[in-house]
Design brief:
Elements (H helix, E strand, L loop, with lengths): L23 E3 L8 E3 L2 H4 L10 E3 H13 L4 E7 L4 H18 L5 H8 L23 E6 L31
Parallel strand pairs: 2-4
Antiparallel strand pairs: 1-3, 4-5
Helix pairs in contact: 3-4
Length: 175
């Protein structure tokens, strides 16, 4: 069944976030047979990144269900979960700088629109945070028993059209 077209939600950053009260769960102590933690931003040397990954308890429960539903020779890999605002800013700044170098003729406004297709605008406003700052977003993949991550169509933070939800639904992209 085809993936439905995802349309951008105009003004998503103006939708207030209400604190749910769920605590953050430190994921490293749950690493084991069904789950591996590979903190990508820490590994890549981002100054504001932490080795420890945390996620809201409700999301953690769902991750465990997903991990246990995998075949015996596969495990869930957590790449990134809760982020402080400083890390979100650092990710945004790095990608924005790459875009500036790659698309020098574009205006600031055009670069910002392009950047925000892949990286949420950092926000210190607790009622309108970027998704990862809520503790409710997580970046995952699947790994086999040989330590090889399954190919999902694009790499971690591959900020290209291949990362769009429906990219591989288009016949010309499946060749």
């Amino acid at each position: 069944q085809p993936i439905p077209e995802v349309r951008p939600i105009a003004g998503w950053q103006s939708v207030p976030i209400i604190e749910c009260g769920e605590p953050l769960v430190a994921l490293h102590k749950y690493q084991g047979r069904n789950m591996t933690i590979r903190p990508q931003y820490f590994t890549q040397g981002y100054r504001s990144a932490s080795f420890e990954q945390e996620i809201r308890s409700g999301v953690f429960e769902r991750l465990l269900l997903a991990a246990h539903a995998l075949p015996a020779d596969y495990r869930l890999v957590i790449w990134d979960a809760w982020r402080p605002v400083a890390l979100q800013q650092e990710i945004y700044n790095r990608f924005y700088q790459q875009l500036c170098e790659q698309f020098a003729p574009l205006s600031t406004e055009e670069l910002e629109v392009l950047c925000q297709q892949f990286v949420a605008l950092p926000s210190a406003d607790q009622t309108r945070p970027a998704h990862h700052h809520t503790g409710g977003a997580v970046d995952v993949t699947i790994m086999d028993d040989f330590g090889e991550e399954l190919w999902m169509g694009s790499g971690f933070d591959e900020f290209t059209e291949k990362s769009h939800t429906r990219y591989f639904e288009q016949e010309e992209n499946c060749r």
